[in-house]
DNA sequence: CAGAGAAGTGGACTACAGTCCGGTTATGCC
DNA sequence: GGCATAACCGGACTGTAGTCCACTTCTCTG
């Protein structure tokens, strides 16, 4: 046990909740792109400085909004039932099955919040690769590709396919079903 | 023969050259990110309006600067010697060889101008997928993947790996050699 | 409860992308 | 050469991301 890490001040907590609330509403109503940070701040009854201090930038705000769902997915991967999670020791799924399950689950998540994820990945240059989430997915996929010549590199390649910016654009061309199929096919090719 | 398409006015041509010159120099000296459009305009002795009218946005300016090299690569693919190009009819390379050659050549091009390509792809949202170049690469790869279940979708997936933003980030993690190897391995897996 | 200092606040400020439009100039035609 | 007109020019203007810092508020300690 160590001394409690400095607790968040009450006013700060209140403001954070207000901002997340306001942002969620505004984004739903006008689309993520159609809402400026200033508008969010005003709607939350908070100064611009406060907003940026808390969330860093628009990507950070989007990330915060996704936090809950993202965590749920990560939990499911780490501790949940097979094939997404490791499952009970006596009946653990193959790496291939788990990879498949991960891609399906991630695509569900991504397609369900495409605009928000896209902002969280692109609002700041290189944002996608700096946030913890990417590292998590990358690590997971890397482990599932163990045995291949270069799992780390292959995991990056596979994840490139899941970049929100890419998915958004490709969706217009081939639609969700073919995108899904192609992603799974690619994973299959990598785990042969 | 049709009536000559309205020729570019002399002053416009002069200004365009001045802008490209100034931009090339400034970008070399201060990096692409470190130069504002206003600075480019000033250095070229041109108004901001002119700059934007001509090139649309920063992505457009970057694209224009890359134009020559990009065209060269496209020419080589369409008409050049094998294995990058189709080569003479009697000794045409396999699709697999051509794909391999394309990826090598594209990576050379990309790594040689990473910052510029990155701006051209990301300065405007979705820019990468709107410009003609992406369509060209996609079409080429699609043709080389003929016979697979869904060449169009697979080509998108393979090209995702070559997005400048992705490459820029991954480079820091695994370096150019492993990136190259992984890309080729992926292509191999797709043409088995 | 009082005082100190850390944490938080908000709005003025800067910098940059991109738009707009009244004025200018090249060009093709007579 | 002179004129009509379409193309072009440039800089003032707008909207937004993100920074800065003098001031306020909370929390902890004695």
TrEMBL record, chains A, B:
The keyword Hydrolase does not apply. SUPFAM superfamilies: Homeodomain-like. Residues 36-55 bind DNA. The keyword DNA-binding applies. Residues 13-73 form the HTH tetR-type domain. GO terms for molecular function: DNA-binding transcription factor activity; transcription cis-regulatory region binding. It comes from the Bacteria. InterPro entries: DNA-bd_HTH_TetR-type_CS, Homeodomain-like_sf, HTH-type_TetR-like_transc_reg, HTH_TetR. Gene3D superfamilies: Tetracycline Repressor, domain 2. Keywords: DNA-binding. This is Transcriptional regulator, TetR family. It comes from Micromonospora chaiyaphumensis. The lineage of its organism: Bacteria, Bacillati, Actinomycetota, Actinomycetes, Micromonosporales.
